[in-house]
Each structure stands twice: as structure tokens, then as C-alpha cells.
């Protein structure tokens, strides 16, 4: 069952087509890697799904019915589509726990809130840091906290843009386990990254974008072997 369906999506900036009649479908329970050279349209795709950028044409459907291209950013977030931006954006003057409370959202009942915070702390490996100020965390820990804040909102769709940028090899390896721990049968996860070893470890399938179109879709091993993918991206 598809959790998120992108149909014939085009985004135009001035005269430039950042997404060009792009279609793809992501299953519930799936972790999808989205890769491709700089300027391929990866971030633009996440921007359209999260309502930050308007499409020229096409549709993005969440679940059975909700057309995200007709929804506001706030409506999309309320529908359970949550995004982690490339630069960590935690609240530095609040504790880790307080950041997670914000992640839960205002309407969350206390018992459910406690459950989600414990789950998020555990998955992010931040249990011993719960009462520290977020501003005092290491860069990698801030990235994990931001993912944990996304998780605390109980999202149906998680969009992660370059989650291991600037992380050490050891932190990157830990992030693989963290992201795989976010998987749920009713949740779709989209991970944009340039780190191919990371994508191979974390994603079930990959979509290779180039000039706003799909160049390849399938297993990472197949992407590595596809001549066009090697030519425009992996071989450089
Ligand atoms: N707001 C905007 N106005 C004009 N052009 C834009 C805008 N946002 C993105 N673009 C252009 O659209 C193209 C796709 O950009 P996008 O950020 O989606 O690429 P990307 O695949 O995320 O690349 P990277 O790997 O470098 O992050 C680029 O050529 C970019 O310059
Ligand atoms: Mg980008």
C-alpha cells in the first residue's frame, strides 16, 4: 500500500524546471533513499511534499485521500508529514526533554506524551542527556535530537534531508540504527543523502533523481550498476 504518491509533479523556478513531470510512490513501512547530483531536485521534492514550495502541476497524495499540493504547510504537518531540515534546529536554551515536549505538540495527552518522550529518548540514545540543555549537545547529538523531535510528533511520513552531513563515521553508523528504528508498518520514511554507504545501509530502495526526473528506482546495488547513474552521479 502506498503511503505517499507523487504524480506528474513539476516545479518551475523562473524558466527552470527543478522537478520535471516526476512520479514516484513510497509504500507504508518503507525507507526510501533519494539520491542524485547537486541540483537534481531532491530538496525541492521534500519542499513540495511539506508544502514549502508550490508545484506548477501534478499531485502529492498522502494515504487514500489528502492532496498535499492543495494543503498549507500547517495542514500538512497536522496530517503527520514531518521534516528534518539539513541544519539542526533544536531549541538550544531548552533541555532535551523540553525540546521533545515541543516535538509532541500541544494537543498530546500527558500519558501519551510521556510514552513518546521515553520512546524518542531511547531511539535517539539520549536517555542520559534528557535534562541537559540542547545547546550543549555535540553536533551529532543535536541531529539525533531533531530526529527524535520529529518522532515525538508520531508522524506518518518522515522526511530527512542529509541527516548525516557533518557527522563522523561512527556517528553516521549510529544514525543508520536510529533511522531504521523509526520504521513502522504504517509509516513511510524518505531520506535524502549524498553518503552512498549510508543510503545503502538505511534504505530499502533508492530513487536516483537527475534534472528533476527519475533516472533509476530500485535496489541500491542496481543503482551502482546502472550505466546512466554511474555517468551522471556515482562515477564522478
Ligand atoms: N527557491 C528557488 N529559486 C530558484 N531556484 C531554485 C530554488 N530552489 C531550488 N532552486 C534550483 O532548483 C534546482 C534543484 O535544487 P534542489 O535544492 O532541489 O537540489 P538538490 O538535489 O537538493 O541538490 P543538493 O544535493 O545540492 O542539495 C537547483 O538548480 C536549484 O538552484
Ligand atoms: Mg538539497
In the predicted model, the low-confidence regions spanning at least 5 consecutive residues are none
The CATH architecture term of the largest domain is 3-Layer(aba) Sandwich
Q: Could you give the count of β-strands?
A: 10
Mean pLDDT, as a whole number? 95
Q: Could you state the order of secondary-structure elements as H and E?
A: EEEHEEHEHHHEHEHEEHH
Bound molecules: adenosine-5'-triphosphate, magnesium ion
Structural class: alpha/beta
Shape: globular
Proportion of residues in helical segments: 25-40%
Strand content: 25-35%
Biggest sheet details:
6 strands, mixed
Top-tier CATH class of the largest domain: Alpha Beta
Distance between the termini: 36 Å
Name of the CATH superfamily of the largest domain:
P-loop containing nucleotide triphosphate hydrolases
CA radius of gyration: 18 Å
CATH fold-level name of the largest domain: Rossmann fold
* Tally of helical segments: 9
Report strand order across the widest sheet: 6-7-8-3-9-10
Number of domains: 2
Description of the structure:
The protein is an alpha/beta fold and 236 residues long. It folds into two domains: 1-80 and 157-163 and 186-236, P-loop containing nucleotide triphosphate hydrolases (Rossmann fold, 3-Layer(aba) Sandwich); 84-154, no CATH class. Helices cover 36% and strands 27% of the residues. It is built from nine helices and ten strands. Strands 6-7-8-3-9-10 form a six-stranded mixed beta sheet, sandwiched between helices. It has a four-stranded antiparallel beta sheet with strand order 2-1-4-5, covered by helices on one side. Helix 3 packs across helix 4 (110-124), helix 3 packs parallel to helix 5 (139-152) and helix 4 (110-124) runs antiparallel to helix 5 (139-152). The termini are far apart. The model has no long low-confidence stretch (mean pLDDT 95).
Amino acid at each position: 500500500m502506498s503511503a505517499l504518491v507523487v504524480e506528474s509533479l513539476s516545479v518551475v523556478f523562473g524558466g527552470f524546471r527543478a522537478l520535471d513531470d516526476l512520479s514516484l510512490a513510497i509504500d507504508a513501512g518503507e525507507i526510501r533513499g533519494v539520491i542524485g547530483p547537486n541540483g537534481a531536485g531532491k530538496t525541492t521534492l521534500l519542499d513540495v511534499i511539506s508544502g514549502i514550495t508550490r508545484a506548477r502541476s501534478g499531485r502529492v497524495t498522502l494515504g487514500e485521500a489528502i492532496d498535499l499540493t492543495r494543503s498549507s504547510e500547517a495542514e500538512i504537518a497536522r496530517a503527520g508529514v514531518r521534516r528534518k531540515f539539513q541544519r539542526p534546529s533544536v531549541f538550544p536554551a531548552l533541555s532535551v526533554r523540553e525540546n521533545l515536549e515541543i516535538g509532541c505538540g500541544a494537543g498530546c495527552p500527558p500519558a501519551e506524551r510521556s510514552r513518546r518522550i521515553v520512546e524518542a529518548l531511547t531511539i535517539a540514545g539520549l536517555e542520559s542527556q534528557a535534562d541537559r540543555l540542547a545547546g550543549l549537545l555535540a553536533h551529532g547529538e543535536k541531529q539525533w535530537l531533531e530526529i527524535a523531535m520529529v518522532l515525538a510528533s508520531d508522524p506518518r511520513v518522515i522526511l530527512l534531508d542529509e541527516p548525516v552531513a557533518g557527522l563522523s563515521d561512527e556517528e553516521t553508523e549510529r544514525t543508520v540504527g536510529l533511522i531504521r528504528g523509526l520504521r513502522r508498518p504504517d509509516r513511510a520514511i524518505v531520506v535524502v543523502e549524498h553518503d552512498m554507504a549510508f543510503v545503502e545501509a538505511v534504505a530499502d530502495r533508492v530513487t536516483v533523481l537527475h534534472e528533476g526526473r527519475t533516472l533509476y528506482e530500485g535496489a541500491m546495488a542496481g543503482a551502482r550498476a546502472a550505466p546512466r547513474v554511474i555517468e551522471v552521479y556515482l562515477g564522478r
